[in-house]
Amino acid sequence: EAKSQGRNTAVFFNSAMEERLQARLQLQRELHRAVLSEEIELYYQPKVDADGQVYGVEALSRWLHPVKGMISPVDFISVAEQSADILILGRWVLRTACKQLVEWSKNPDRQHWTMAVNVSVKQLREPNFVEQVEEIIEQFGAPADKLIIEITESMLLGNTESAIEKMNRLKSIGVRFALDDFGTGYSNLNYLYRLPIDQIKIDQSFVRSMNKNKSQKQVTKSIIALGHALQLKVVAEGVETKEQFNTLQEQGCDLFQGYFFSAAVRVNALQNDYVPANATK
Ligand code: C2E
Ligand code: MG
Ligand code: MG
Ligand code: MG
């Protein structure tokens, strides 16, 4: 009895694994088609300043699957990263974001908005990454000083010098960099001051736990102090409540991003009369 059950369990386990593998392969095939057919869309999440005014947006990819509905980048970016699809997708994201930036640059109410774009480690490691970004900026005439590229600490692992060199070249034409998910990765404080970054983004996990106890509040306070000591702007991610916003504001945080103000929205939601929720002015 026990023996046959054990065998059944093993068979079941194997077919579950097989199913997962098949599902992943199917997702990979569908993603390849999606990347080519523009089923992927950019949504934009505002970053606001301490007065609740929009400072800019972060472009976030959304896959609008014809049958499965909206698929989160958490589920498809890692799949895209297993093939050259991430390079095609990444380039499309940069182009689309830069085109939008040009649209906003013609609008007096929007021309101060920055556009942050997430890049993948595979993109950054492309030998001609700098030329690709320069070419897109030139082709559309995008204001380079409004483009912010978001990278994470883990992307620099084993690759720091070459990444710094590329970042410096892009910085020389005005492009800025933000260090995303700060505090969750391999935080090497030895090289932090050497990175040509303009912003650090406090990971949302710290923001989530900050109102739970006093010592958690010290974490965000310390990250803000560190950022300011390095002359960086500090952005808080995942701000969901007034309490979190107030505390971070008191701690001197410069920019805020989160559902308290707005989730990522379609571009047509950002009309001229657009004001994020809970904006004080
Ligand atoms: P990220 O760059 O750290 O982006 C922040 C994520 O937090 C976004 O999830 C955003 O929708 C979500 N978020 C914003 N405010 C709140 C909040 O108040 N509460 C909570 N719970 N979440 C909030 P999303 O859009 O699902 O993206 C997840 C990750 O996928 C991004 O993390 C980024 O690493 C990656 N990603 C998204 N779009 C792209 C892309 O075009 N290219 C690349 N390479 N990666 C992307
Ligand atoms: Mg980001
Ligand atoms: Mg983040
Ligand atoms: Mg992230």
From TrEMBL:
Taxonomy, superkingdom: Bacteria
Signal sequence residues: none
Residue span, EAL domain: 24-278
Protein name, UniProt field: cyclic-guanylate-specific phosphodiesterase
